[in-house]
Amino acid sequence: MADRTTYLFNFSLFLYTALVYAQSTNPLFAKIDEVKTQRIDSLIKFNTDENKLQYLAVLPSVSYNFFEKTFNIGISLSNLSTFYQNKQRNKIELERLKFQLNEKKDNDLLSLENEYSLILDTYEILKLELDNTTLTKEIFNLKKEQYENNKITLEDWLNLQKNQQDRNLAILAKRKNLISKMKQFEKRLKNPCFKNELDYLRLKK
After folding, report:
1. Is 174 left (phi over 0), alpha (psi -120 to 50) or beta?
2. How far apart are CA 111 and CA 116, in angstroms?
3. How far apart (Å, rounded) are the C-alpha atoms in residues 89 and 84?
4. Which residues contact 150 (CB under 8 A, 6 or more apart)?
5. Residue 73 CA: distances (Å) to CA of 54, 57, 65, 83, 195
6. What is the pLDDT of residues 142-188, one digit of tens each?
């Protein structure tokens, strides 16, 4: 039964690992994956080494008979049975722990990749808005000229100014919010992954 359970855990771990590696992985997160994997391996190795000490419980007992002047060596079958059962149980538990830790690691990395993609998508949309600023200014100046030549009413001109101001404030808020998100993400990863995007957002007015 224990061997069957171990097999099922190993098979599940194999399927899950195959599924994860089948997905596209951004090289940006390779180092994070490596560090987390090393931590998991170290934890599993530590517990494995600790469990190895349990063999001390099945060492034969040695006694000396002073009357007969002989040594007696005894082996407990009960201890051997308990040792084997504990060994199998610990092996299963370590497999379960390794599976759970790897699953959490992969889910965390997937969450990071999704967040990274979302930030980049937001950046591309905002970049289009910022790149469109020149055309918007030209239209604004054209309307201003029309107002000065009495081709549009004061009300239209004031509404145009308000819309232009609202647009500028909205873009400013989006830019500041996106810069903040990029900085926080870089800080968590300890990697300047948004350097070019941040340079653009800081310079673009």
Report:
1. alpha
2. 9
3. 9
4. none
5. 20, 15, 11, 19, 71
6. 999 998 999 989 999 999 999 999 998 999 999 999 999 999 999 99
